[in-house]
């Protein structure tokens, strides 16, 4: 459990809050490149870390993420004209470039000297592998972009998509690092068929956790009994400030070659989150059907509508099927992401952690909270997290494997947990 004060610190992300300031020291995924694909196309509303913004791609292809409101009379720039390398407010014609600089004031006298002194808030952006990133922190200490393996793989070896989640970012992350719930929430009641991993999840429902500090955040290993003399390990990565990597399930001996998935849990505000889903296939190109499955609106992370709103949601009870719940599906809810969302959103927009009763299976969650609260306190005293300035620390993978019982997991998994080295440019 957390005190009410610590829970407030953990969950509030607006400007000036301890956690909000910590998030602002990192690059964050803001939107898919496809959402603003056209030069001089329509601007897109964007809300991140409790700030209202608009995004647009200008005539030269540059992406701007700026204040949602004009500096003149605070009219909404979403209705603006994206033209001639700037976003023009339709109220009085003031135009702003991707850096937030006012470049035209047609409603004012010609050569008005004020023009060059007027700016709106604008954030740094970068674009990689179909994702627009944003940095919302101080310009005097811009960090490195995180060097995720998926962000530099060839076109058909990665996917990215997102969906809205109606709860605070932290309870979403905590679901992502909790390897014990898969024995229940994502199980099927009729059998334990499928991969060996599924069988181990069913036969050993109380995994033992080992949590280790890492340069990027935490390494969270869950151990289950497998064949005599062996353990089945699932190793989840938590990467600052809001990323998780999901251990694959498959042929353990070749898991370094298997596709794997990860998430970014990016706060829209204190009570809603963009759940980003990334996948990487280090060894081969995805087939068309795999790309649709991993990255499409109707695929594994869906179904979602054109605005990436889930079609299974709280208002329709996630289309729970009680008959299936009795006979085959532990929850009666279709799809792992929808099962996760149902329980995480059922806690309320911000769960009251002072009312929790934690157990041994929550060791990773306890360490996550302690880490984030400590880093927020350190930043308030001027200490910036080291990994914010070292993108190479993000070049890691999750892993699942069988190991002899006398082999420490971080020794046995070492080769599997490293991403492929970046190629020299």
UniProtKB/TrEMBL annotation:
It holds the Pfam family Rieske. Keywords: 2Fe-2S, Iron, Iron-sulfur, Metal-binding, Oxidoreductase. Residues 27-134 form the Rieske domain. The keyword Cytoplasm does not apply. GO terms for molecular function: 2 iron, 2 sulfur cluster binding; metal ion binding; oxidoreductase activity. This is (2Fe-2S)-binding protein. It comes from Pandoraea iniqua.
């Amino acid at each position: 459990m957390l005190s009410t004060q610590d829970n407030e610190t953990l969950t509030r992300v607006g400007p000036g809050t301890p956690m909000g300031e910590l998030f602002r020291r990192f690059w964050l995924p803001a939107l898919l490149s496809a959402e603003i694909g056209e030069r001089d196309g329509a601007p897109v509303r964007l809300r991140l870390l409790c700030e209202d913004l608009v995004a647009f791609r200008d005539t030269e292809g540059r992406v701007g993420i700026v204040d949602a409101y004009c500096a003149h009379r605070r009219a909404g720039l979403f209705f603006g004209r994206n033209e001639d390398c700037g976003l023009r407010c339709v109220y009085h014609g003031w135009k702003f470039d991707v850096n937030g600089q006012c470049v035209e004031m047609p409603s004012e006298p010609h050569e008005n000297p004020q023009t060059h002194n007027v700016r709106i808030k604008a954030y740094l952006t970068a674009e990689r592998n179909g994702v627009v990133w944003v940095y919302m922190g101080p310009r005097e200490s811009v960090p490195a972009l995180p060097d995720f393996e998926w962000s530099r793989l060839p076109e058909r070896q990665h996917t990215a998509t997102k969906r809205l989640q109606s709860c605070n970012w932290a309870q979403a992350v905590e679901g992502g690092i909790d390897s014990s719930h898969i024995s229940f929430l994502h199980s099927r009641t009729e059998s334990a068929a499928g991969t060996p991993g599924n069988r181990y999840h069913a036969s050993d429902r109380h995994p033992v956790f080992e949590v280790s500090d890492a340069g990027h955040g935490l390494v969270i290993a869950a151990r289950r009994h497998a064949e005599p003399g062996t353990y089945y390990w699932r190793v989840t990565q938590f990467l600052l400030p809001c990323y998780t990597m999901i251990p694959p399930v498959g042929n353990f001996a070749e898991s370094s070659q298997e596709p794997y998935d990860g998430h970014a849990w990016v706060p829209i505000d204190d009570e809603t989150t963009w759940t980003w889903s990334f996948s990487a296939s280090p060894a081969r190109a995805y087939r068309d059907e795999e790309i649709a499955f991993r990255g499409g609106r109707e695929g594994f992370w869906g179904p979602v509508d054109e605005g990436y709103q889930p079609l299974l949601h709280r208002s329709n009870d996630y289309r729970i099927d009680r008959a299936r719940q009795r006979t085959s599906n532990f929850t009666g809810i279709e799809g792992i992401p929808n099962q996760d969302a149902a329980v995480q959103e059922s806690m309320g927009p911000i769960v009251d952690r002072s009312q929790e009763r934690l157990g041994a299976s929550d060791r990773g969650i306890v360490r996550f909270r302690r880490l984030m609260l400590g880093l927020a306190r350190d930043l308030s005293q001027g200490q910036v997290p080291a990994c914010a300035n070292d993108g190479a620390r993000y070049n890691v993978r999750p892993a699942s494997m069988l190991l002899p019982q006398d082999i420490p997991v971080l020794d046995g998994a070492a080769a599997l947990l490293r991403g492929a080295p970046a190629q020299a440019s």
